[in-house]
Every structure is written in structure tokens, then in C-alpha cells.
Amino acid sequence: MTGKQDRWAELTGGQAGEEYAQRFARLVASGHDVHGEAAFCDALLRPDARVLDAGCGTGRIAIRLAELGHRCTGVDVDSSMLAVARRDAPAQEWLLGDLARLDALGLEPDFDLALAAGNVVPLLAPGSESAVIRQLAAALKPGGLLVTGMGLDAAHLPLPEPPLTLADFDHWCTQAGLILRQRYATWSGDPYQDGCGYAVSVHSRPA
Predict the structure, then answer these.
(1) How far are the Cα atoms of 80, 102, 170 from residue 41, in angstroms, in the given order?
(2) Average pLDDT over residues 74-91
(3) How many Cβ atoms are within 10 Å of 110's Cβ, its own excluded?
């Protein structure tokens, strides 16, 4: 860890939980499908898989994956977001913690899939990215998958410019012993091409 505040906290002050939840509630009310990430992950998993939602926020994805029959643990550093998740799904496991120190939470390294959606990686504390990827890789069982979604330009980020490149991210994954399996431009599975503003990546821990 660098000791620096993560970019999400700088943007929100750590008080964004209710506002974030209301934004997605409005999307649902207007007829939008907000479960693309969960559907994408579900298609990769066997029934009753164990999922780590890293940077789970208000729990939208983990709650949906639980509805689809998976066992989900959500971790986030923003207590205001976790308060919403705990209210909406009190029976699920929600942990307050720093993703760069997942090992401090005492989780067993037996997850079938670790998910970092919603620009989690670009919004990490500067300098902590490689440590977070190592922690997520260590949480996976052999053959487990790391699934990430991140903006690569200002149009797909709540930041004026991207703090990292896809090459940076792939380097950290390689350092953590992960292998790139698939990459898409959207959670719907549109093909990724160089220059796309968003990337959904599937890395695996070797079996």
C-alpha cells in the first residue's frame, strides 16, 4: 500500500452509497437492464460457484449472482456503499476492507471467480494497483478466473484522463501469475479492438 487515498474516495468523500443506489434504481425504473456484469460472470461459472466481488459497492452484482445460485462475498473500502448492500441483502457476506490487504480479512483462497467491475482498478489508490491484482489472484483457486471491467479513456471514466493503460494492467496480471483468456469491449461480449474505450478482461490462475 502507498498510504494514499483511493481515487474513488477523492471523488465521493466516501459518502456516495445512497446516491449510487438511487442512480441504478432510476435505470431499472426506466427499463434498463443493469445485470450485464452478473450475466457475463454467470455464463463463465458452474452452479453454486464461489465469487469474490472486489469493490462491490452497493452489492448490485453480488446480489444478482446470489439470486442466480452462487455464493458471493463482497468487499469494499467505502462503508456508505456497504451499508446499502447490507440493508438490501443482510444474509450475504459483506466485508469492509482494503483490496490491497485482502489477506488481512482471513478469506480462504478458494474463489472460482474474482470480479472487479465498475472501474474498480482505475479508481484504486495510485501505486496500489499491482498489489491489488496480486491479492485478487491469490484469492482464486487453481483455474479460477479474474474478471475485470475498466474504462480506458475519459469518456468511460469519472476522471479527466485514464490513470493506467491496458498494457499496465496486463503486466500486473502477468506478474501475479495470471493468463489472459478473453477480452471484450462490453459486458455483452462485443469484440475488443485496439482503441476501444472500455475493456472487459478474463484472466485465469493456472490450474
Answers:
(1) 25, 21, 20
(2) 94
(3) 12
